[in-house]
């Protein structure tokens, strides 16, 4: 479920990036790399788990599924927080700089 | 248990390599890309340091979220020895074996995907060079 959540996040971010390319004002590319990297790593985790559990891997207990989904959502949220921090620090549109140094 | 350590180690190495490659890159190669109806746009050939950045971003980003998952499961703690499995010798050997199998596979898959991306971009660059007319 964590893998599935991250893959969906990666797909959505890639679609948003593609729609706005070559403009990269919002730095959505950062999110794409982060989510795709995590998805690939969790895919390997899933393959090893499948090799261990077999078909049982696809029928998890509802509680485990909910916990994994909760983890996936938290990972996506953490990725968004990192992206937001990078966006505000790099400030490609100069919005933060303007707001901070604005004369009253 | 600590599988994210392998991609992190690879990310450290590739980040260092990126810095070295970037400092050596001076001239950017220009390509003319056909944009339809006999019009062309000049594109810069993607420098290798930029391609390396793709790998860095995937490795750092992926291992960061994976590290978070380990914190979530209580496998990584903010006090020494940071990895809960490291305090028990029996668990430590399982952790090392998992790092050697799962961790190495993770790093290998991310690198392999990046390799495929390199091949695709190389083919695209070649195609752009071919469409460049002889007169230009």
Overview in brief:
With 104 residues, chain A is mainly alpha-helical. In chain A, 77% of the residues lie in helices and 0% in strands.
Determine the N-to-C terminus distance of chain A. Answer: 50 Å
Structural class of chain A: mainly alpha
Q: Low-confidence runs of chain A (pLDDT<50, min 5 residues)?
A: none
How many individual domains of chain A? 1
The greatest inter-chain interface is formed by: A-B, 25 and 24 residues
Elements of chain B, N to C (H/E) = HEEHH
Main sheet strand line-up of chain B: 1-2
Given as residue ranges, the uncertain stretches of chain B (5+ residues, pLDDT < 50) are none
- β-strand percent of chain A reads under 5%
Number of domains of chain B: 1
In DSSP terms (H or I, runs of 4 or more residues), the helix count of chain B works out at 3
Give the overall pLDDT of chain A as a whole number.
92
In total, the number of strands of chain B is 2
Q: Let me know the largest β-sheet of chain A.
A: none
Chain-averaged pLDDT of chain B? 85
- What does the largest sheet of chain B look like? 2 strands, antiparallel
**Portion in strands of chain B:** 5-15%
Tell how many strands the DSSP assignment of chain A holds. Answer: 0
**Helicity of chain A, in percent?**
over 70%
Shape of chain B: elongated
What this model shows, in words?
The complex is a heterodimer of chains A (about 100) and B (about 140). Chain A is built from four helices and no strands. In chain A, helix 1 packs parallel to helix 3. The longest helix of chain A has 29 residues. Chain A is elongated and about 65 Å long. The mean pLDDT of chain A is about 90. In chain B, strand 1 and strand 2 form a beta hairpin. Chain B is elongated, with a radius of gyration of 21 Å. The N and C termini of chain B lie far apart (about 55 Å). Chains A and B meet through helix 2 and helix 3 of A and helix 2 and helix 3 of B.
């Amino acid at each position: 479920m964590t893998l599935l959540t991250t893959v969906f996040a990666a797909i959505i971010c890639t679609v948003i990036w593609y729609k706005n390319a070559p403009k990269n004002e919002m730095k959505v590319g950062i999110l794409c790399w982060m989510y795709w990297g995590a998805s690939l790593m969790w895919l390997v985790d899933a393959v090893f788990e499948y090799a261990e559990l077999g078909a049982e891997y696809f029928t998890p207990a509802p509680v485990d599924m909910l916990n994994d989904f909760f983890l996936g959502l938290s990972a996506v949220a953490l990725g968004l927080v990192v992206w937001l921090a990078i966006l505000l620090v790099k400030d490609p549109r100069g919005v933060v700089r303007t707001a901070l140094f604005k004369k009253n | 248990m600590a599988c994210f350590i392998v991609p992190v180690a690879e990310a450290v190495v590739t980040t260092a390599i990126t810095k070295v490659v970037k400092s050596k890159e001076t001239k950017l190669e220009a390509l003319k890309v056909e944009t339809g109806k006999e019009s062309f746009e000049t594109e810069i050939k993607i420098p290798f340091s930029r391609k390396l950045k793709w790998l860095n971003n995937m490795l750092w980003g992926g291992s960061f979220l994976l590290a978070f998952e380990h914190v979530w499961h209580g496998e990584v703690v903010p006090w020494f020895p940071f990895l809960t499995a490291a305090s028990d010798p029996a668990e430590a050997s399982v952790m090392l074996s998992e790092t050697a199998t799962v961790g190495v596979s993770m790093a290998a898959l991310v690198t392999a995907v990046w390799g495929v991306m390199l091949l695709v971009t190389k083919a695209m660059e070649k195609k752009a060079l071919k469409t460049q007319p002889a007169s230009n």
